[in-house]
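Narrative summary of target 7.
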Amino acid sequence: MSGHKLSRVAAATFTILLLAVSASAASAASPVRFGAKLTSNVQPSNAGPAHDCEPTAGQSCTRVMTQALDRESPKAPKDGTIAKIRLIAGESGQLTVYIAKIKDGTMAKVMRKGPVIHFDGQPDNILNYKVETFNVSIPVKKGEVLAFKSTSTSVLRCNSGGNKHLIFQPSLQVGQGFQEADETDGCSMLIEAQYK
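Modeled conformation, tokenized:
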């Protein structure tokens, strides 16, 4: 093989290797997430004032995600540890994060309890919506979903109907078996988990 052909082969090989390394770096830079797909363009439509729990306002409830905004499934794609919780809220408030399992679309049980999160909501006169991020360490198993407990919440996007999450009142407790939901809700829960 001539030197000219050899240098072309070497250049082509180098280009292929460079593309492979770039693709690998790009995939390594993309965090693995599940739950709602949150960006600064996701509006917490009709989330304020904060929605009370149903059927009894003023008492806490557990909301369990059954459909994830802009994702095919709400379920965790693999076993691992959640390192960050991301959310979009219409106004300030707090919630307690839970990891749950759903069954038959109308039943759920909570598997693990996470931390209480205090969030700020959206500032006045905004052009892009604020995604708030919180450091956590919560084990999760493949197929589990996000849930949270609160008395009222604006961590919602309410712009269509359907069954996007289940509501349990009284709140679900770790260690209970599967419970039948008291209500279903057509608002999307604006909460997302990011793996470590």
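The chain has two domains: 1-30, 31-195.
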